[in-house]
Amino acid sequence: MIYHELIIIGGGPAGMAAAVTARERGISDLLIIERENMLGGILKQCIHNGFGLHYFSEELTGSEYAAKFVDKIDELKISYKLNTMVLSVDGNKMVYTSNEEDGYVIYKAKAIILAMGCRERPRGNLRIPGSNPSGVLTAGTAQRFVNIDGYLPGTSCVILGSGDIGLIMARRLTLEGVKVKAVCEIMPHPGGLVRNIEQCLNDYDIPLKLSHTVFSIHGKKRVEGVTIAMVDEHFNIIENTKEYIACDTLLLSVGLIPENELTFAMGAKIDSVTNGAFVNQNLETSVEGVFSCGNVLHVHDLVDYVTLEGIKAAEHAVEHIKNNALKTIRRVTVVAAAGIRYVMPQYIDITEEEEVVRVYFRSRKVFKEVSTFASCDDVWISKRRHLRLLPAEMEFIEVNTNDIKDDTVYIGVDA
Amino acid sequence: MVDIVIIGAGVIGSFVARSLSKYQLSICVTDRHIDAAMGASGANSGIIHAGYDAIPGTLKAKFNIEGSDMMEKTCEELNVPYKKTGSLVIAFNDEEISKIQEMYDHGTKEGIRDMSLISKEQVLTLEPNLSPEIKGALLAKTAAIVSPYKLNINALENAVRNGVEFLREHTVLGIKKEKEVFSVITDKGTLTCRMVINCAGLYADEIARMVGDDSFKIIPRSGEYILLDKSEGTLVNHVVFQAPTMEGKGVLITSTVDGNLLIGPDAKEIKDKDERDTHRSSIDYVYKKGLQTTDKLLLHKSVTIFTGVRATPDKGDFIIEESRYCKGFINVAGIESPGLSSAPAIGNHVALIVKSIIGDISEKENYSMTLEKKKYFSEMNEEEKKEAILKNPLYGKIICRCESVTEGEIIDSIHQKAGAVTIDGVKRRTRAGMGRCQGGFCLPHVMDILSRELKVDKDKIQKGDEGSYILTGRTRQ
User: Fold this and answer.
1) What CATH number is attached to the domain comprising A388?
2) Are both A332 and A404 inside the same structural domain?
3) Catalytic: which of B33, B49, B170, B349?
4) CB spacing of B475 vs A101 below 8 angstroms
5) Handedness of CA B33, B36, B41, B45 (dihedral sign)
6) A247 shares its domain with A210
7) How far apart are CA B92 and CA B76, in angstroms?
8) Are B250 and B241 in contact (CB under 8 A)?
């Protein structure tokens, strides 16, 4: 068994930011464990720009963004294990790993930062009927084939879901000469960022079909086409709207699922809406000394926010390691109320010190010119104006801990 | 010229090959697909039935009971996951109570062990998640679950190690017989042999017609399933059937040997034998039927949906005999459920038929009916993991994160005798890509390994049969 003060699971943007912060705050004994053959996580395959505007105040590609952190990690001589899979973590902060060089190795840590990122929702989870040919794959897998391996996944395609990866791939494939025939989105509003709808679809005349889904997949060996159809407000197929589109590829960009197998295995509580851990405002999970950040906690819109969350998790992990964490007097639950799909953190721990806590949330639908509120015992304790609220864009509201008189805080839209 | 050509590398063809592989016979197994277990054997409930369903006196009853008795040992020999879960047939009303009584009587008549009719309270003690509407059930403790494709693939692997030749992608186009010699004409050339064993599943009637035997017809029937995440795998402890009705055997719920939860199938006649489509209506039906058994089924936990097929014989019972129209041509046809349960027994029986035709054949000096013991990496304990990695460091490198499948296991699956040559082939031998991300993460890695080990370019790697390519060429450089 090998001991480290801090172990970070995952060397993507969240894990790298956490590692740099922890080192800068004086943690010398830390290790990043990464399953791929290099650091960077999903950023490695994001060769498009649009990264770093918030955090670095300059526009970078995903790989450039990652490289800045990789350089920093090397400069700070932070150690990391590549090609190493964490098989399991338990509540005693034992980390069970395996790789080709060291074999089966068990680590123990004083604090753990979970930064495993997320995976894409596959076809089977959506239960798209039809045949089962090759040519149905998630947008991220396609992105890897194109940007890392240099291969094309098809010649003509339909994309289901208007998540950002799908939109980015619509443009990327178009530039590679692949005919992108349509992007279907089951919701009446786009899933990805407004700028991606503009720059990846509209600029290339790729039709975005809102309230549309794939009804069926055709082709025995390879995809030959898909039947798409419009849905009503309950997502039921409207019969006479079916349309056949010939294509050899169906890309899915239908949601990201935080990859919390390890979190679950160690016994941490999981939020069934975010699919991430329940955390307090310090990003600490229900297992003491285990912190969660980035897309494994909840799916973010921008990597810049993932970085910030990684930094925050590291700051509090460092406090934990140095035994400086403030004692919790009482725990308050934060609940998503009217118009809100989820909140993060799900707990606020009240300590002796007054604190302004930023509660992040996503709305259930599009709102224009509304206020959100935080309420406690039917009294508003905070309020924020929004020109618009989009489910695709994370928002926040701030709450002062001195105002929390009850053990539940509700976050809602004042409609 | 070989002694025997077996047409079809499904579970039946593979077990026939295995049973014959110990004798001094030269044998080829042909299949029109790129791998074994690509028809009915590859997608079904994976259940070893106790044997009470079939009508006493039928071949179905005989081979089911024999096969079920053999199965635990066979799985042990072939290193196939097997779990004796027992089964329940639940009854919701008096009519169904009398139906399960009838099944119990059938079973008793056939001498099936460990069966009992149990009360509602007993059912709910055994299966607390089942509907409180249940009136009673037939409990059969000998029922079990297996990995159906593993059983098929490993039986063939065993046969091939004993000297049987496996000819993939050989579609039989015609069969001629001259002076006791068969010419089996395939799209890849003609095979000559002394005997032909027709294990062609859905196509068995078409193969039989090639020698002038039109004594039976195969009616293709499909059944659709929903597979739920491993988080749901402990919802039931037994295979839970609903009582059979006029509509068919009914929808069952079972955990799989890999720990998922399986719901299905429906039953529908299909026109196209190659069709494996899933349908919204069927999946909805299966789910609704499943909910009658337990209301705790979470559809959003689905990992995949799939369609299996049944080679239903028009006359009802299995057909296992030398054709009356052609000497030396043996039909092993119409092997629908309980075909999987019957497979080892059918294999042995066909070997007897062959012996009765050819006369006494001696056994090979070196043959084995067992494959080496091998655990999935994910099922090893710490010591076993350490040891496995020490022996082969590639066992330390996890390729499929959902199922913890290592590079070492994938390479082994490619280089075994009847090894994997496709993504699906690797998947069914190792479970890589079978987990909750359904290959989103490991697909590119598995392709790299296949490409390297088979020494073919990555854009030649297929999901399954020819035409199921995954990549269409290079990007602009």
Assistant:
1) 2.60.40
2) yes
3) B49
4) no
5) negative
6) yes
7) 37
8) yes
For residue B250, what pLDDT is reported? Answer: 82
N- to C-terminal Cα separation, chain B: 51
How far apart are the two ends of chain A, measured CA to CA in Å? 55
My answer on whether A139 and A210 are in the same domain is yes
What are the residues whose beta carbons fall under 8 Å from the beta carbon of B293, sequence distance 6 or more?
Answer: B90, B130, B131, B240, B242, B251, B253
Which residues of chain B are within 8 Å of residue A215 when distances are taken between CB atoms? Answer: 280
For the domain that residue A250 is a member of, what is the CATH number? 3.50.50.60
The total domain count for chain A is: 3
**pLDDT score for A202:** 96
Contact status, residue B437 vs residue B50, Cβ threshold 8 Å? no
User: From the DSSP assignment, how many helices (H) and strands (E) are in chain A?
Assistant: 8, 28
Q: Which residues from B are below 8 Å from A154, CB to CB?
A: 472
Query: Is the domain of A126 the same as that of A202?
Result: yes
Q: Is B274 on the interface with A (CB under 8 A)?
A: yes
pLDDT tens per residue across span B131-160: 999 999 999 999 999 999 999 999 999 999
| pLDDT tens readout for residues A387-398 | 999 988 899 999
Regarding whether A336 and A406 lie in a shared domain, the answer is: yes
Does residue A282 surpass a pLDDT of 80?
A: yes
On chain B, the residues whose CB falls within 8 A of the CB of A221 are 464-468
Predicted local confidence at residue B248, as pLDDT: 66
CB-based burial, A212-240: b 16+ in 10 Å, e otherwise: bbbbbbbbbbbbbbbbbbbbeeeeebeee
Residue ending a domain, among A254, A280, A296, is A254
* Pick from B357, B267, B362: nearest CA to B321: B357
CB atoms within 10 A of CB A65: 26
| pLDDT more than 90, % of chain B | 96
Mean pLDDT of chain B: 96
The pLDDT assigned to B247 comes to: 65
CA dist., res. A121 & res. A123, Å (int): 7
Selected residues 383-422 of chain B with any CB under 8 Å from a CB in chain A: 385-386, 389-390, 393-394, 396-398, 401-402, 404, 406-407
- Whether residue A279 sits in one domain with residue A239: no
Give the residue-averaged pLDDT of A99-114.
97
* Burial class for B322, CB neighbours closer than 10 Å (0-12, 13-18, 19+): middle
Q: Which of B46, B49, B42 is nearest to B10 (CA)?
A: B42
Looking at the partner chain, which of B274, B398, B475 has a beta carbon nearest the beta carbon of A98? B398
Does the annotation mark B170 as catalytic? no
A25-80 pLDDT per residue, tens: 999 999 999 999 999 999 999 999 999 999 999 999 999 999 999 999 999 999 99
Question: Residues B32-55: pLDDT tens digits?
Answer: 999 999 999 999 999 999 999 888
What sign for the dihedral angle of Cα A227, A228, A230, A235?
A: positive
Assess whether A345 and A415 both reside in one domain.
Answer: yes
3-state secondary structure of B19: helix
Choose among B248, B45, B255: nearest CA to B151. Answer: B45
Confidence bin at B244 (pLDDT 50/70/90): confident
Residues A108 and A126 in one domain: no
* Contact status of B476 with chain A (Cβ, < 8 Å): yes
d(Cα A389, Cα A367) in Å, to the nearest integer? Answer: 5
Report how far residue B322's alpha carbon sits from residue B5's, in angstroms, rounded to the nearest whole number.
14
Report CB contact under 8 Å: B396, A99. Answer: yes
Q: Which domains, from first to last, does chain B contain?
A: 1-84+143-217+314-373 (3.50.50.60), 87-141+219-312 (3.30.9.10), 377-460 (1.10.10)
Q: Could you please report the per-residue DSSP string of A6-45? A: EEEE--SHHHHHHHHHHHHTT--SEEEE-SSSSS-GGGGG
Of A193, A219, A254, the last residue of a domain is A254
Q: Which domain holds residue A282?
A: 1-120+257-325
